[in-house]
Specification:
Layout: E1 43-44, E2 58-59, H1 65-71, E3 74-80, H2 85-100, E4 106-111, H3 116-121, E5 129-134, E6 137-143, H4 148-156
């Protein structure tokens, strides 16, 4: 059982023996992410005709990774999970970069909860992680939330 100290308003300092037994109940997170969708905006690779830039980041799965990495010379995969608050903070940055570099850099999303084997293949130990795949080769992993400018500088190295 979890304990919390009794409120000491107007009673002075109380010792550990005087603490009342109060259960602490966790409240659901109701912060600034409330109301955000549980998934990112993406589309299946099959919905994108070959030779065209996808209008949204593409959904990466174990079945589509090989085709996506061979179809697009520079593929950046956003590895995320629905419960990950930092992932939700990175999502708008990835969407902005996708719009800014459409046709040059292709962005994809990988739900690590649904694609655990694929996440293990890439050695993902923490999310969010951006995987950089150039000409079919995994060349870099960027772990954590970074400012848009820093991500932009890092990704321009691969153009």
């Amino acid at each position: 059982m979890l304990r919390a100290r009794a409120p000491s308003v107007g009673r002075g300092r109380q010792g550990p023996g005087a603490a009342s037994k109060v259960l602490i109940r966790a409240k659901p997170y109701a912060g600034r992410w409330e109301g955000r969708p549980e998934t990112t905006k993406n589309q299946p690779l099959s919905a994108v005709p070959p030779g065209t830039a996808p209008p949204l980041p593409i959904e990466i799965t174990a079945d589509t990774l090989k085709e996506a990495s061979s179809r697009y010379p520079l593929l950046v995969i956003d590895c995320w999970a629905p419960w990950c608050v930092p992932c939700k903070a990175l999502t708008p940055i990835v969407e902005q970069l996708h719009e800014a570099y459409m046709g040059t850099i292709t962005f994809g999303t990988l739900n690590t909860d649904d694609q655990q084997e694929l996440a293990m293949e890439f050695g993902i130990m923490g999310i969010p992680t951006l995987l950089v795949i150039k000409n079919g080769e995994h060349v870099d992993s960027i772990v954590g939330v970074k400012p848009k400018g820093e991500l932009e500088r890092k990704l321009k190295e691969y153009l």
